[in-house]
Design goal:
This protein is mainly alpha-helical and 229 residues long. The protein contains ten helices and four strands, in the order αβαααββααβαααα.
Length: 229
Amino acid sequence: MSDIEDAPPAPAGPPVTSGVAAPYPARLEIAYPDRLNRVTTAFRLVLVIPIVIVSSVLIGEGSQSVQTGNGTWVTTTSASITSGLSVATLLLILFRRRYPRWWFDFALELARFTTRIGAYVALLTDKYPSTVEHQTVALDLDYPDVERDLNRWLPLVKWFLAIPHFILLFLLAIGAVVSVILAWFAILFTGRYPRTLFDYVVGVARWGLRVQAYAFLLITDRYPPFSLR
């Protein structure tokens, strides 16, 4: 037998990586429209009322005043589905280390529905928000493997760790509102959404989605990047 055949195999080197970070578990893309309808843009806040009512009924958040037996009025508030879902998910991860798939699917579809409404209000699309079709809004969340991917104790403090994001998102949201107002005038005169403003508004929505996925939907322990992209 030759020396080459008797030689021991060379030790395996470290795995080769591409150096590209994995995509964040929450992603949002909205197709840029070539032209937008000036008439529906002008009356957007009126046209969106029916679907906003549907969304409000679905989410279930609200307040009401009731009169007690002694004649005094008491205002009561009901927690929304989204807040209840967040608390219940936290408890499941903490005590059972589970995230039921049907639970996740509901949160995903609700996020898609409300984002389609937000995109319509922000003039990013002319398509009236559908309760079924994804339309021009592509929102994806990755289903977590709780035992492998999630720390059971971290959900207790995620809201606190996300405070820097809340502050920045408040400031970015102000800029987004101004951008939508400017875009409203631009669409009325030109029929087009300025691409710079469009990318900024979508970027703010994308940033907010990542923070929601981290702090409230609890699907990931990866801290959200400080980026509009």
